[in-house]
Each structure stands twice: as structure tokens, then as C-alpha cells.
Design goal:
- Helices cover 47% and strands 14% of the residues.
- It is of the alpha/beta class and 277 residues long.
- The protein has a 10-stranded mixed sheet with strand order 1-10-9-8-7-6-5-2-3-4, with helices on both faces.
- Strand 9 (191-193) and strand 10 form a beta hairpin.
- Helix 1 packs across helix 11, helix 2 packs across helix 10 and helix 2 (39-50) runs parallel beside helix 12.
Length: 277
Amino acid sequence: MEKITAKTVRRLLPPRRADGHKGDFGRVYVYGGCAGYTGAPVYAGEAAVRTGSGLVFVGVPEEVYPIVAARCACAMAHPIPERYGDLLDRVRACDAALIGPGLGRGRAAEENTLGLLRDCERPLVLDADGINAAAAHIDVLDRRTGAAVLTPHQGEFLRLGGDLSHGRERAAEDFSRRHGCVLVLKGPGTVVAAPDGRLLVNSTGNCGMAKGGSGDVLAGMVLALIGQGAEPFEAAACAVWIHGRAGDLCREELSEYAMTPVDLIERLPAVFKNLGF
């Protein structure tokens, strides 16, 4: 099975024009957050900034907006519009969107998620409760015409109807073909699968990354690379390797016990520099 390596990432990362401005490097949208889960959209948004996005918007419920806004150093937070049509317009004004970090499982969140899957042609990344919403209505995902990337851990994958009885690689490949999406099956040796049969296995990362918030960082990184023009499968492959390499640097400097999702974000510059960017 082909593994993702530093050479793979150097080849696939989208180039950055020397004369580019912020509008050239992607406008991306993070839709998430709820009471008790205010960190998730912050991690995703800040990871997107660190992964090269020109403009990052973070939409969260009104009741948690002050908390999230105070924590977003570079991403731009705002309250989610009350009308679904206004939310759809905001997402359509961006190059790609991430749905799910800390979103919760309320009725409005589920309806908005399904609506965006149905109505928004922009590439969408689904993580956490975005995945949970799709799992209950997999037909909406199947009918989607725009690109979709799903980033489930094992439990979420099973809720989606995935079958692990023949191994993770076969499971990811089968699911991706059946539902027409890019699948990032997280865990030791994260698997990235595309509907056309392409399959890659990650070669970086460690168990110190198994903490709440690490997945939000990864989802924000995938979002950023898609927003900069990377094809979704290639964006996912690059993001999982860079994410894992940041985790390996954290292990070397901080130990597997002590690293945090914030530490992962802070190690991203070193990873990009070591890749030669």
C-alpha cells in the first residue's frame, strides 16, 4: 500500500504565487460551535490560517460568539445568521467550507448541515457533528454533486454505515466509491480514499495526538488546502501527513503525554519550513 511521504506532500501542495494577495489564497468558512464546545471551531479556524488560508471565517451560534471571537487571533468569527438562506449565501461566497467542529446535534444544526450538503456546490469538509448529521441522512450525501470530504474516526465511520470487517483500507475504499466522497479514516495509519480508487496511508503521527481537538485541527487544515486550490483527495493527503508530522515534533519536544491541539498548530510553521516552503 502506498504511503504518504514528505516527497508526496512537496509534490501535491498548491503553489503560492510570489505576487499573490489574501484573495488568491482561499476564502474558507468554518461552521460549528455550541455551548460547551467552543474550542473546536477556534482550533479549526486557527489551523486553517496556519495552513495558508488568505481569509478564514468562523460562524458560531450567537450565545457562544463572544467566547469564540475572543479566542480567534486571526480567523474572523461572527454569529451564524438566523435565516438558512443567509448562511448559504455566506458559504457560497467562500471557496470551501467545513461543517461540524463542536456543532452539536440540535435540530437547527442538522437542518443547516443537510441544507448545505444539498444546496451548496462549494467543496465541503464534514467533521464531527457534520458527519453525525449526514449519517442519519446518507441519501443527501449520495445525491450531492459538489465535492465532499469526510473525516471520521472509527466510531463515526461505523455510524455512517462503514464496514471494518475486512480492514481499514478496504473499508475506506469501499465507502468512498459507494458514496462518491473523499474519506479520511482517522486513527493509526490514517487512510485517505477517493471515489476513483486512489488510496494512500499516512506515515506520520503518534498516540499523543489522541486528544479532543486534534481532529478539529486536521479538518481546518484540509479546508485550507482545498480553499487554496488543491484537489480534495490531494488536500486531505497533504493535511494528514503535515498534521502527523506536527504531532511527531510535539512528541520530541513535549512528550506524548503533554502535547495539546494548540501545540500541533504551533508546530505547523516548522513542518512547512522543513518541507522547503
